[in-house]
Amino acid sequence: MRQAKRSYKTRPAHVLAATRKEVATRFKEAKVFFAQGKLELARRRVKQARRAAMKVQLRIPEHWNKYCRQCNSYLQQGRNSTIRLKKGIRIIRCQECGYVRRKIIKK
Predict the structure, then answer these.
(1) Per-residue pLDDT tens digits for 24-76
(2) Quick check: 96 and 83 in contact, CB under 8 A?
(3) What is the rounded distance in angstroms from the CA atom of residue 41 to the CA atom of residue 32?
């Protein structure tokens, strides 16, 4: 017996567009709350945005450096994260939980 090949469902374009818009608004709200000093509300907005994107299997590359993958904190350079460049690699460290993210920079 031959096993059926597994594949992911492709989402309709209007669903992906709506989710992209929702994710963008959640990150804008997180930025506003972070600026006001409401860190827990900012964290909640980031978590909601990530959950919405995961639900439809949507990548959010334009926001990859704005949140911590471990603690869902909204990151802002100099306030709760540090960014270092080392041998062509961008290193982002969350100062709330210590999580480190590395990204290779194209030359």
Answers:
(1) 999 999 999 999 999 999 999 999 999 999 999 999 989 989 999 999 999 99
(2) no
(3) 10
Residue type at 84 in one-letter notation: R
Range of the domain at 31: 13-104
Domain presence at residue 7: no
Asked if residue 59 belongs to a domain, the reply is yes
Tokens in use for 82?
Answer: 């540090």
pLDDT one-digit tens code per residue, 10-20:
888 999 999 99
Two tokens, residue 80: 């709760």
Count: domains in the chain: 1
Distance separating alpha carbons of residues 89 and 31, to the nearest angstrom: 26
Q: Would you say residue 6 lies in a domain?
A: no
Strand order across the beta sheet in which 81-86 lies: 81-86, 89-94, 100-104
Task: Quote the CA–CA distance of 38 and 52 in Å, as a whole number.
Answer: 22
